[in-house]
Amino acid sequence: MTNHDKPHTPYELAHTLFSACKHEVEQQTVRIRGQYRSGQGVLYSGYYYDYLRDEREDCSLVIKVPKVLRLQLIDRTPYELEGRIEKGLIRNKELGIHLYFTLVDVVGRRDPIIDSRVQEKADILQSHLSKPRQDVDLLLRNLFEDRKRPLVAMVFGRSAATETDIMWAVGNRQDRYEFAKFPINLADKKAIIDKLRELDKARGYDLMVLYRGGGSGLEIFDDPDIARVVVGMKTPFVTAIGHAIDVPFLQQVADRAFTTPTDFGKFLKETADKYIREASQLRKYRQQEKEHLQKIEDLRAEKDHFQEETLQMSRAQQEQMPIQIIAAFRRRLILWLLAAVVCGAGIGVAVSYVYLRLLSHGVTAAGGAREGSVSNEQVPPNPVPTSTSNSPNVDRKKRAGK
Fold first, then answer.
1. CB–CB of 231/125 below 8 Å?
2. Which residues neighbour 224 within 8 Å (Cβ) at sequence distance 6 or greater?
3. What's the pTM?
4. What is the 3-class SS of the chain, one letter each residue?
5. Rounded CA gap, 339 and 333, in Å?
6. pLDDT tens for the chain, residues 1 to 402
7. What is the rounded distance in angstroms from the CA atom of residue 205 to the CA atom of residue 232?
8. How far is Cα 305 from Cα 307, in angstroms, rounded to an integer?
């Protein structure tokens, strides 16, 4: 088996490639430029492991910074640095080759290729996108379902008239919410930051809104410091700033942005209306379901009652069957006895009748014999009949002759 045919372990293969990847730049001191980003601030073997961010691409290079040179660097500042390129073999769950830049000297600060303010906003926006988004609609709905009135912290300008716009838009659904009003100076950056931090720290508010009408002075809501505070807040945050054509940076990092204060008020009203409609429909469905379940329970009860009655009747029949059999046997026995008695009586009567008839025939025969003997002695041979069939007529003639 040749060396080409011999199998390698993953580490052996990675180590072979690591050893083979050599370039003359590794032996030289090179200059690189980018935006310095401080790391965790932990010293390992005399070096801090920080980053140098590419100003054109979204990537960074790990730099090993000696302690003495780190004191000269300012976070988020472009620099031109001098040092050596090194590579290392990563032996974590996934093998790989990692590049390091060992800092030798700080050549100097450089003007950024892009505006540092734009870069800062990009970083804030990236932090906002990596943060779980608060669903304001779902938040209010859950509170309504828990039979709670959402507590809304309202931050607005002291001299603003937009409060009435929101309340007018909410209309007859104001009783569904609880509003806490905090008028401040919206032209003061510190006042805005302090109030937002104070309300978020209180943690008693379900929703926080910062609103203002259009006009001049909206530039303050493009300030990255205010946006950074909003990104770090725990309380759901919405904005309603300016008119439809105004899109301050603060609205880009809010959980939800409304074009005007009136739109925010309409949103609150529509959310409450939608929940009321759905809750009413849900109650109707639940009532119907309850009625159907009650009907099912009634039918089940009737079925159970019918089965119980059937079972009881069956048991009663089974229990009464011997009695019924005995009663039927008694009735039949009585009928048989009566039939026997009747039959016996009939037979007796018949026998008696026959006997009497025979007896009567015997008596009659004996009497006739005696009468025959007497008549033979006294009556002449040709007796004159005493009467004929026309004797009544003869009697009438005789009486007439007389």
1. no
2. 117, 120, 121, 124, 249
3. 0.50
4. CCCCCCCCCHHHHHHHHHHHCCCHHHHCEEEEEEEEECCCCCEECCEEEEEEECCCCCCEEEEEEEHHHHCCCCCCEEEEEEEEEEEEEEECCCEEEEEEEEEEEEEEECCCCCCHHHHHHHHHHHHHHHCCCCCHHHHHHHHHHCCCCCEEEEEEECCCCHHHHHHHHHHHHHHHCEEEEEEECCCCHHHHHHHHHHHHHHCCCCEEEEEECCCCCHHHHHCHHHHHHHHCCCCCEEEEECCCCCCCHHHHCCCEEECCHHHHHHHHHHHHHHHHHHHHHHHHHHHHHHHHHHHHHHHHHHHHHHHHHHHHHHHHHHHHHHHHHHHHHHHHHHHHHHHHHHHHHHHHHHHHHHHHHHHHHHHHHHHHHHHHHHHHHHCCCCCCCCCCCCHHHHHHHHHHHC
5. 10
6. 455 567 878 877 777 776 777 776 777 888 999 889 888 788 888 899 999 988 777 788 899 999 889 888 988 888 999 998 888 777 766 777 778 888 888 888 876 666 667 778 888 888 888 888 889 999 999 999 999 999 999 999 887 766 788 889 999 999 999 999 999 999 899 999 999 999 999 878 999 999 988 777 788 998 999 999 999 999 999 999 876 565 788 999 999 999 889 999 999 999 999 999 988 888 888 888 888 888 898 888 888 888 888 888 887 777 766 776 777 777 878 888 888 888 777 787 777 777 777 777 766 666 555 555 544 444 445 444 444 444 455 455 455 554
7. 16
8. 5
Residue position matching structure tokens 């009003």: 181
